[in-house]
Amino acid sequence: MTCMWLSTVTGGILALFVSLKIFFPYFWEDLVFFLKRKRLKSMIKKRAKNGILSVIDLFMHRVGKIPHKPFLIYEGNVHTYEDVDRRSNRVAQVFLHYGALKKGDTVALLMGNGPDFIHVWFGLAKLGCVVAFLNFNVRSRSLLHCCNICAAKAVVIGEDCLGSIETEFIFHLLENNVNVWVMSTSSPFQHVGTILDKLDKVPDHPVPSHLRAVNNGRCTAMYIFTSGSTGFPKAAIITHLRALSACLAFIQCGATSQDIMYLTLPLYHISASLLGVGGCIELGATCVLKKKFSASQFWNDCRKYNATMFLYIGELCRYLCNQPSKEGDRVHKVRIALGNGIRPAVWKEFLMRFGPIKIFEFYGSTEGNVGFFNYTNKIGAVGRAGIFSKFLHSFELLKYDISKEELMKDKHGRCKKARIGEPGLLVTLVTQEAPFSGYVGNNEASEKKLLHNVFVKGDVYFNTGDLLVMDGNGFLYFTDRVGDTFRWKGENVATVEVAEIIGMMDFIQEVNVYGVNIKNCEGRIGMAAVVLKPDQAFDGERLYKHLVDFLPSYARPRFVRIMDAMQITSTFKHQKMHLVNEGFNPEIISEPLYFLHEPSCSYILLTREIYKNVASGEICL
Fold first, then answer.
1. 491 closest CA partner among 157, 165, 135, 131
2. Could you tell me which NCBIfam families the record lists for this protein (predicted)?
3. Which of 132, 143, 229, 546 is the most exposed place for a label (fewest CB within 10 A)?
């Protein structure tokens, strides 16, 4: 009887296992990921009860546990958790003694990668300040706009960024009563404070703990700028809870405190600062910080520092694959790579060449209220909506008319859901558990990201602006961005801003900026169609100099098309689709085409030979 009962139970378990394997092949992966997410969520709540409500609280907790463990390694120099704590204490003391800052003030950071970025960030956090991370590639008006929109009381400029700062920018800040500090012993500008010369004059004792105290995890921790869909950069509000949640990314990849992260992405990005630096704090791991990404030095550095994981954007992996093959390409200890934007072909080539590294692709945005995680390492997918996903987040893919740039609706005015295998606009339900914090100082832009009454009256969804497709197994794949923004070099390029800058030239009458595809390149590269003013000639040298002064390199259009007239829609909007489809092929386009030629510091005539070299990859973009 017992044997019969045991055999029946065993047979039932075996049948269940086989059924799950056939009908739900990813059941166990989905279950493990779901349970892990629930555990991490509970962990954050438990920590909150113990007073850990911010990244700086978490860092102080780690300092107490592992003070002598290496936290940062930069250019061969080791900085322990305690070293960073004491150095950031000194920064906090400098601002406490010399700076007119109070808890809740916003301070903008314009600094390149290095330990002092983190020292200043943590030092200001210890004073209870909100830190705004500025993109050091941004120039003049955009930079000033960033400082104004987040109401910065002070700006800290890294010594490595001083060379690109214009006197006019400093003058405008001082005129608006914004204190300016440089991470240097001396300043080339009048009325600008210095920090490095004061660090030895103040103690490394902690500032009063009540300054950094956080009463609510939904309070603002920092601002991180995103190009958004139009106009100048927008300051996305990152709450303390959101920041702590971002720090958990590498735990979901199976990383441990013994791992060593190699970080080459700019710290002003949420990926580098929170997933990277914050992720190391969460793990109690070590971060090898690089000033700037170098494809030729990447694997040598990984071997030198015994790196076991790294963060990437799609371009980074492609650059590594484009390096000459070496016998020791697989000789390294890297086991985990986390990031977004890697193309399937690059993904496969990367694994073939550099070995069985687990690549965890994720989907998310700086201001978004939900993200996806490819925990099964499915090549090409940005995430997965598994069996238990409805218990983690609520999202939909909506039918979208790309040519009209609008959602498709039924006769009742409600949105239609995209079918399996059909691209759709990703929208995510806004709830108390998944809030949209918006952009500081820009209620109009915040409201534009929200869709109301999508399916029923009163519902609110966040519009990601991205087209995704879901297959029959629940895997999600990124298709494209909608609207005016496109991505290039891992950055969002807002066409309205670029067009406004180009339109400042006195020989240009009208501008239409868009992104075009190039074979084997992630994202789209910038192109501008322009109409010249009557009796005016195109001046490629002047335009080049102007754009270098006003735009970061990734936002400068590589191609310019001269048109007699700009085609517009019935609502007086520039038509882009046909321009995007025609690209920059001189055999298709009869109008003059120009190419941004760095060696000449000018836009030169785009010949068939140049086009051929660009298309073949001989000219690297």
1. 135
2. PRK08279.1 (NF006134)
3. 546
